[in-house]
Specification:
alpha+beta, 2 domains, two-stranded antiparallel ribbon, two-stranded antiparallel sheet, 6 helices, 4 strands, 44% helix
């Protein structure tokens, strides 16, 4: 999350906090790709999908689809492992943790700065507003049309 104090809350966490009778009736598919990850691993092909409480027919089709594909390449598999289990202090990787943490921080700060610039640029445009980008490169600008523009569009049938 780019905004200080903002908290990421996963669908899975919300689902696990629901009463069992509700939780067991909700279908959730979650996907993550290393090529769109925080560390910007563009070019790597790897990722994972988690399925919870998926209809049996849908689950069978997903299994069939995945069964006909080739396995991912070795670097994609290693990248996915690092995505879900990044280096930690106190283990073999401890000697390089400072480098990892600095690179991660630099990448995150660069993404945050670009997200802030994106929203700021939209907000500087005439008749356009955009809410703060909170954790991705997705912005949702709103274009404010004048009543005369709306009337002209209606008169043209659009």
């Amino acid at each position: 999350m780019y905004k200080k104090g903002a908290e990421f809350i996963s669908f899975r966490k919300v689902l696990n906090e629901m009463p069992a009778n509700v939780r067991d009736s909700v279908e959730v598919l979650s996907l993550n790709s290393v090529s769109k990850g925080l560390l910007g691993e563009c070019g790597f092909r790897g990722g994972y999908m988690e399925a919870h409480n998926i209809d049996d027919f849908a689950s069978e089709q997903l299994y069939k689809l995945k069964s006909i594909e080739l396995c991912s390449n070795t670097t994609g598999q290693v990248s996915t492992l690092l995505l879900v289990d990044p280096p930690k202090r106190g283990v073999e990787s401890d000697a390089t943790m400072g480098i990892y943490e600095k690179e991660r921080s630099d990448i995150f700060n660069g993404l945050r700065q670009r997200a802030e610039l994106l929203a700021k640029t939209f907000n500087e445009m005439r008749n356009t507003t955009c809410s703060e980008v909170q954790g991705a490169m997705y912005a949702f600008p709103r274009i404010h049309l004048s009543q005369s523009a709306i009337k002209a569009a209606r008169d043209m049938g659009v």
